[in-house]
Predict the 3D structure of the following.
Amino acid sequence: MTYLKITRLFLLILMLFPFLSCQRENTLFQKVDSSRSGIHFRNDIIENDSINQLDIENVYNGGGVGIGDFNRDGLPDIFFTGNVVQSKIYLSKDNFRFNDITSESGINTDGKWCRGVAVVDINSDGWMDIYISVTLKKKPEERRNLLYMNQGLNADQIPFFKEDAAGYGLDDDGHTTQAAFFDYDNDGDLDVYLIANEINEKFSPYLFRPVIKNGRNPSTGKLYRNDWCDSLNHPVFTDVSAAAGIQTEGYGHSASITDFNNDGWKDIYVGNDFFTNDLLWINNRDGTFTDQLTYYFKHTSANTMGNDIGDVNNDGLQDMITLDMNPEDNYRKKMMLPASSYQLYQYTERYNYSYQYVRNSLQLNQGNRIENDSTGPPVFSDIGYLAGITATDWSWTPMLTDFDNDGYRDLIISNGFPKDITDHDFAMFRSKAYKVASKEEILSQVPVVKLHNYAFRNNGNLTFSDVSDEWGMTTPSFSNGSAYADLDNDGDLDLVMNNINDEASLYRNYSMENHPEKSHFIRIALNGEDTNLHGIGSLVTIFYDNGKKQVWENSPFRGYLSTVESTAHFGLGHVGSVDSVMVRWQDGKIHTVKELPSDQTITINISEALKPGNRDRNSHRNDRLFRDITKQTGINYTHRETDFVDFNIQKLLPHKFSEYGPGIAAGDIDGNGLDDIVVGGSANNSAMFFLQQTDGTFIEKSLLSESILSSKLRDDTGMLLFDADNDGDLDLYIASGGYENENNTSIYQDHFYTNNGRGEFTENNEAISLNHNSKSCVRAADFDRDGDTDLFIAGRVDPWHYPRPVSSIILRNDSSPGKIKFTDVTAEIAGELLNIGLVCDALFTDFDNDGWPDLLLAGEWMPVTMLKNVNGRFRNITSSTGLSDITGWWNSIVSGDFDNDGDTDYIIGNLGRNSYFKASEQHPVSVFSGDFDNNGSYDAFLSHYLPASQDESTIKEFPVHGRDDAVKQMIGMRSKFQNYRSYATATIDQLFSSEQYKSSLVLRSNCFSSSFCRNEGNGKFSLIALPVEAQISVIKGMVADDFDGDGNLDIVINGNDWGTEVLTGRYDALNGLVLKGDGKGNFSALSIAESGIYIPGNGRGLISLKSSSGKLLLAAGQNRGPLKLFELVKNPVK
């Protein structure tokens, strides 16, 4: 290159530099260089023979960040804990410049392995103190926690501190991770909960065993009560753990304090690592606590790191985020995640653990539950998959707050790990090399996980968008404890992160500079009582912009190892004022300030709170749409089923097929003019009748005698009450299903029973054709318009040969007087039902209004399928309806004119969007199947699209399951992929030979949204996704009716599926749901408190019937759960 060319290039770079700089400044955050900030703290950990990941499991758990105004100059200062290195304190000057005052401050942590930091005014003298959690050292005296009491300013205006943990009773030596200060006994002062994490060989955290609940495990959290000491003129803390009932073990990383049940008393959520459950200590209001984790949360993260609490959807209810170690890209997933093992479920249930999954969880607070028509505590639903935040790799701190000032809480997550000993190839190497290689050689083989931190913007609809690049979170790091504060008092929140083996990260937020017109805010500082000057425990609510609200709880000890600022921060977006701010202090007092302009910080004093309030914030509604009358009607039935492991047959199934019962149906069984209920039984269990009496109660009666149950090997998946012989009573058809037995056996034969008119049934299987498929449902209609009732029987699955398609059949009613007979006429009138697919639900419906009942089918790996009845013959017209290219895992159908235009529309239940499986037209979920190794076992490999690796963001189609699971299904995979790395880079086509790949049965699904199927007329239909609240789990049963009397059809939903593959985790987020229709095809979700519908279990069918007094009833079936009955309230909410 010539000198002239070099000169021109240099000038071009100079010209572009301002533009490039401007582009970088448009990111939300800008990293402030240490040369400017003066913050040079590094949490360096140099491996040696005694300090390393092999010998000390928690060596890389990192340090925390504490925010506090230590010199009372109005600017937040920063404290970093160091593990091997000295902890540091930095005093803010201005404009992101800080002074290291550690040597002048009197703080010295040399020789201590410091973990978490709590910044709190512990003696209420107006000066912020520092409580440091110390851990890891073997000698107890070397791991006593430190309490640095702020003595005020010295002559140089520098705050100085005196260590006095022993004097305050807080020199605990129990491997403390972090401390959370709060007022648990409502006496006005601050008590403290200490999180413990000690890995002790005597109490292995890696094995299932009975949970230790008596305090014997040293890795058990502690509760200290604040007791004032007159002689010392300051509080002394007393360990009251045993008296409070806090004795359950856990390898704790984090704790969040909030009032979960809104009774005015603070509760404790503890995030625990390894097999130990997270803990939810509910305050009993008498000085004791009870762990009620599984009552509030259906499952949790498996290895909970940090956690945080905040209201993500601005409904006034506190939601929760917990972090785990699930990677985003395919390579890391395949190298790190464990094999699927159903024994995890079995041991979980055997030892009464909670269900746990290796992923981040976003637990949405669904509000108070309704049980037996009484208001109970709130129930939480994990919507992490729906939200898009489950996979952020080895994660530590979640920060759930509004970073872009748009009025919704965003999420930033710190992550990274210097030595990933979970890497599968390293584990193989370690197991072979341990006796011959040196420790140094072994450690050199451990992969490094240095990742960028993640930023997610809240979209305001329960979903988040990954904006890591746009927000400037691009620097790879080993980030642990992190905190936020408005460091420059400009109205947006800045970030501080404690990094291992790198300088700490300081990020400046440019919301106010980049977009001042949509970054309005209001901030509230609290002045509390003398014993709680900062009002910790208070709840602040703002009301603005025509009914919008936000809530914030003053609990600064949050995330992971850290303390955030204790000033309430609310983003307002474009809104320039606030209607009112309401502070509810922990003692129940309320203070309201009205009509405030935005973009300011106000201070609210408890002394101005004139109105004493009630601590209990629960609302008890009496205007629910439905009420649960199960108990009052005498129904006390729980469906029973043996836990069959389908995955032992085909290792890579996405879900079980042995748990799709019970079928459920309603009608007048015993001829007394009242609607009754029949619920199907599983193998070795009878179908049960519930016969309604004139007083509205139900009497339970078994269909089968006890003596024959041992030979009943089928599941009653489809139930139909209908008049087969036109004699005026209801006969019973039971479609048999399941997966427990080989295909094409008589076990799957259906059963037909005739009714004598008094509810006494006689089996008459000569009346029906042989059909040895495993089935889902049976539906009835007079398809040939000859005056009797014909049947459609849906084939669900070919047992042990998933996903090979199966046939559904049509049985024509050819009965004559005194003889009931159904004939299989499928080949004659509906040949396209041969191997139609895996049908989950069906509906006879006249979708074209020509007077002939057509067929609508919903199925797995199928489009919504329409078969038109042409004079008694069925023709598949799906290709002309506009639906043929939209395939899903459709489960259920309900019909109605939902847009009031005179034709029939449909609601089609699907998998939903709260799943590991993400499907789109561009990136479908697929299954490749066949007997690839010719061993007589049918193989099915699922695939999906993921980024290839951290270094290659290209989206490719990879197998869903890991190498270990693939080897279980096909032993040849072991030799083909001799290490995990080779498998982790293999796309789905590379698993097979070209011949295998070409000969495989390939099915694809590109839509998992439960949808409104709008009838557009002229044989055309369109699918519109239901509201997001209906996407949080699988929809199984539905009933449509005008429940609220406004002239528009509404929908009640029953759902979930607990039979999923173990690593995917149970689909359990639904609790039943009511969607209120507006008559235009739009729907809005009602809360549990509004609807009165609460069906939290493994929901299946949902049917309507009439009570003896004429009221509408809904009966909900649950697999291995109770039958529930709901009554429509006489004067429903409009």
Remarks:
- Confidence is low (pLDDT under 50) at residues 1-24.
- The chain is about 10% helix and 35% strand.
- The first helix runs from residue 3 to 25.
